[in-house]
Amino acid sequence: MVLESAEILIKPGMEAEFEAGVRQAAPLFQRARGCAGMGLQRGIENPRAYRLLVRWQTLEDHTVHFRNSADFQEWRRLVGHCFDGAPTVTHLDTVFDAF
């Protein structure tokens, strides 16, 4: 399992529109090949800062299959205009789960 972590800064005043777009886009992720779940977190210290967390079966499910799909283009149409700069995306492997 691979965890995609996307740090996304949103333009001032567009937080509600961004959150609505992410909710609307959830089915795009749900039907994506290898997607095992997604969620959105919002910064407390900086409410314009969000973290999108998506669980993928493989790295390629995200970087090849989803990013080259029409659903990715729809995702960007729904939320991309809210971005204040390019998101920072990293992929993580679990090393240790304590509890």
Keywords, separated by commas or semicolons:
single chain, alpha+beta, 3 helices, 99 residues, four-stranded antiparallel sheet
How would you describe what is shown here?
- The structure is a single chain.
- α1 runs antiparallel to α3.
- The protein has three helices and four strands, in the order βαββααβ.
- The chain is globular.
- A hairpin with a 6-residue loop joins β2 and β3.
- A four-stranded antiparallel sheet has the order 2-3-1-4.
- It is of the alpha+beta class and 99 residues long.
- Shape estimate: globular
Strand % is 25-35%
The largest sheet is: 4 strands, antiparallel
- What separation lies between the terminal Cα atoms? 17 Å
The percent range for helix content is 25-40%
Instruction: Report the average pLDDT across residues.
Output: 98
Care to count the β-strands? Answer: 4
Uncertain runs with pLDDT below 50, 5 residues or more?
none
Neighbour order of strands in the largest sheet: 2-3-1-4
Radius of gyration, whole Å: 13 Å
Number of helices: 3
Counting helices, strands and paired strands, the structural category is alpha+beta
Question: What is the H/E string?
Answer: EHEEHHE
Summarize the structure.
The protein is an alpha+beta fold and 99 residues long.
How are the SSEs placed, and which strands pair?
Blueprint: E1 2-9, H1 15-30, E2 35-42, E3 49-56, H2 59-66, H3 70-79, E4 88-93
Antiparallel strand pairs: 1-3, 1-4, 2-3
